[in-house]
Amino acid sequence: MNQSLQILFPVLDTNSGKVMVAEKINQNQKTKYYAFQFQNQVIPKTYLIEYDNALKKSKHNELFRQYYEMHIETPGNPEIPYLHLFHYYEDGKFLDQKVIDYGKQRQSFNYAEIQLYLKNFLIALYELHSNQIPGRIFSIYNTLVVQERLVIMDFGFGPNINQDNLDILAPPEYLEQIINNKNYIQKEFDLKFDSWLLGAILYHLIKFKSINQVEVQGNSYQRFKYDRVEEYYNYLKNLDHIPCQTTRYKNDLLSFVESLLTCNKDNRLSFEQIHKHEYIQNLELENKAEYIKFYSENQFIKDCEIGITSTQGFQPATSQISFDLRNSFTQGHSESVIIKQEDHPSPQVTRKPIKITEQISNYQEDAQGYPNFLNIILNTPQFNNTNFNIYWLKIQLDCLKCQMLKQTAEKITTILPKYKHPYHQVLVYIIKKMNSIVLREMDSELKSAYFQKNLDEQWEDFLSQNKQNLPRSDSIISYSRSLQSEIAILYNNFETFLNEESTTLSNSVKKSIESDKSQNFNMLNNPQEFYQDIYREEFELLLQFINDKITSNNNLEELNQLKLLVFHCSQITTLFQLETFEETFKGLAQQNQKPQPKDLAQYFGINN
Fold this sequence. Notes:
Pfam families: Pkinase. By secondary structure, this protein is α+β, with helices and mostly antiparallel strands. The chain has 23 helices and 16 strands. A 7-stranded mixed sheet has the order 13-4-5-3-2-1-14, with no helix packed on it. Strand 2 and strand 3 form a beta hairpin.
């Protein structure tokens, strides 16, 4: 059978592994799926097939991911990763993305929405628990909203919780166990673990931030991940519960959430107590008596399948995968987050008018002799050779990234001091370093016979024929040296802050900056950190800072524009991919046209 599987774009990383959107082409019929690339190449049958079989018998099977098949490129070749395909929801949106959308609109979740989601979670958790399956890793980040019902995409035994790059969402008693025993494996699961996770989700919907984002020094936040588990555990030890007070909701809801986020497990609500709680009783769940009876008899789940590594029961399918998955994703993430595809960018930002030309003007450097990226972004010629159009778009996207980073650094410099951000110069440093890395990679590609790592004679012809219209290597190098000098000056300005014990910067960011210094800020290190989680935490905290200022200030235009730029900088390695550019930004296209980089320049307000 002639079929192929094409990876369209990454969606998120969760405890189980990477989640992507894939399209299967079978005899000209195209079908989209969620494709899981699990961390472990050999998946225990109980942790997928038996869960799937059990939940198919559930009265509420629609609340869980729908497994389709195991997909491999070469049967029997352990070097090729298995992909497990699940039903794709065309109208689905991850719950954390809905939080982001509401945040942009300064809109809170209303009571009806929170109660609907809470009902869905309680029903789904009962279906899991009654089938001896823990929630364990479910979160706001791996739960879909599909036509106002939820679909939980990750749950159960198997996936490792304790991974350095993951957000800490687990309860304190689990953190204590992994601190005392680094190789700790959960053999018996206390359902109060899921009580805590349910509280974490409600807290996020109410407070618009994760429970592991801790406010320090009044104007900044720390986001704790498992590489700082002892520090976060010590923070929780001093709390009776994670506070969830706000004037936007009534106390009956807020106190219920706090009773779930109680740090002492003995005082935390069990699921029997949850279903007997007045707030839940008022939700009038249909089978509440059944739920209470079950939970009065069941407080733990045992993992009876530790050590099983059979793949019996998988239905394998083989076909040509469109690119090598082992090298395609250098950007890790966590339960959180973090890297999510928006349906289209938010329409809330006012577009600034830009004079657009439709053909290449004579390319010139700017007044300082640096590359004139805007000239390239705003001009979209049509070449006779269709491959040349692809090459030009790739160069435009690289130029757009550089111009966006430049504008973001300028906005941070002028806006954040007004709001007393404690280390805005470090953020400018990070942005300029990112710009330096993009420049270096652009210069390398413009001097190479390889286009996107493939030897390409037409690419060489394109470079030769359009040399006068492309950035010159000497101007790129000149700009890079200027950035290097600016980066060194910024370091000197915040070096004292960097070494203070009270600094809120993560250890990974501090180590990265010290590494830059040891190289005299030449950025010769492998840029993997640019594509990983090193800077993501700082972007997420900055977005939280901006959200807080939007809530309490009237100058919304400048804050919203900065938020827009920071958000796209945080996803720069995924949103500006050549293969997915048109799909990602189709919402910005002119009528009946494909989106162009100039549309993004206008959207971002880039005009110089």
